[in-house]
């Protein structure tokens, strides 16, 4: 298999991984948001490209952070700052 085909195969496989759906992650948040949880993180399959927000209990503010596809998320992950503030402040 030449390098171009191998690279294409890897790219297709990575592109099919759903955001936050890695087999190494806890189940997605389907219950009440928990603003006390730590910043989501872990090993991502693709470098951070998505902007999300999380509540920081120390600063008592919603903060922006970036995640990549395949990163684990938790119930302290919000799509917008307004959503974070509505849930946590």
From TrEMBL:
The entry's keywords: Signal
InterPro entries: Kunitz_BPTI (IPR002223), Kunitz_BPTI_sf (IPR036880)
UniProt keyword Signal, yes or no: yes
N-terminal signal peptide: 1-20
Annotated GO MF terms: serine-type endopeptidase inhibitor activity
Domain BPTI/Kunitz inhibitor: start-end pairs: 35-88
Protein name: BPTI/Kunitz inhibitor domain-containing protein
Organism encoding this protein: Amblyomma americanum (Lone star tick)
Taxonomic lineage of the native organism: Eukaryota, Metazoa, Ecdysozoa, Arthropoda, Chelicerata
């Amino acid at each position: 298999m030449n390098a171009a085909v191998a690279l294409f195969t890897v790219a297709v496989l990575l592109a099919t991984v759903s955001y936050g759906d890695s087999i190494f992650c806890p189940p997605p948040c389907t219950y009440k948001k928990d603003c006390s949880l730590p910043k989501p993180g872990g090993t991502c399959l693709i470098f951070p490209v998505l902007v999300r927000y999380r509540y920081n209990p120390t600063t008592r503010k919603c903060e922006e952070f970036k995640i990549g596809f395949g990163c684990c998320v938790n119930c302290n992950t919000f799509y917008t700052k307004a959503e974070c503030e509505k849930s946590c402040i």
